[in-house]
Amino acid sequence: MKKRKFLMFLALCAGLCLMANASNIQAQDSSTSQAATKQAETRDEDINLDTQLYLIVGTNQDVVESKLPAQLDGVVKQLRAALPFKNYRLAATLLNRVKNEGRLDVKWIGGPLAPTSTPSLTPSFSNFSIRQIRMHRSSDGQQIIQVQGFNFGARVPIQTGQAVASNTPAGSFPTGGFPTINYEPTGVATDISLREAEPVIVGTLTVGTTNEAIILVLSAKRTGK
Asked: Does residue 36 belong to any structural domain of this protein?
């Protein structure tokens, strides 16, 4: 009887030891997991992203087509397959650095995005913003960049007529004057995801009276601190 009680006591001690070891292992695993998570969060906080916004103008006018950057070759193939324009030119490139999970807001004045008869006198007013940009790893291990609150807007000069010069004699046929320009708003707002360093077409905006279009292309990649 005493031997049986002794064996039961040994078994109870062994069970307690096993439970204690399992608890220690779980605590160590939890501590390791928390440390890894904290380290990953620290690394994420150190990440900066270089964003590039390309403004490409598509047109059917007979113009000399400028050479676009090599990284846009795939985008140009998509444009030629999907849109009816004969020529494409790069109107502007915006390069900005943003902290991971940060925001971006840019405003600028530039040349007319659509052709006008007086380009030097008709600038365009544009703005570009991102509410938040964040990098994360997808289930298949790829780096995905989420862009929340992408917003591009522009006030584009459009020639709507020809004003007669004030010194034209009454009753005579007007031979001079100056163009009448109106500013029309255009823009696009959306949420998108893209692979790191891969340019994607965000949207197209029709502008001008000759059926030109602005094509918005965005890319983003990691950079140093």
From this structure: no
Amino acid residing at 51: T
The per-residue pLDDT for range 156-175, each reduced to its tens digit, is: 887 777 766 555 555 555 55
pTM exceeds 0.85, yes or no: no
In a domain, 7, yes or no: no
Tell me whether residue 18 is in a domain.
no
Q: What secondary structure does DSSP assign to 102-133, as a single string? A: EEEEEEEEES-SS--S-GGG--EEEEEEEEEE
Model pLDDT for residues 78-120, shown as the tens digit of each residue? 999 999 898 899 989 999 999 999 999 999 998 877 665 555 5
Strands (E) in the chain, as ranges, are: 48-59, 87-99, 102-110, 124-137, 143-164, 177-195, 200-207, 212-223
Question: Structural domain tally of the chain?
Answer: 1
**Where in the sequence is the domain holding 124, given as residue range(s)?**
43-164+178-223
On the question of pLDDT at 38 being above 50, the answer is: no
Q: Is residue 16 part of a domain?
A: no
Instruction: Tell me the CA distances in angstroms from 109 to 16, 92, 124, 184, one per residue in order.
Output: 75, 11, 6, 15
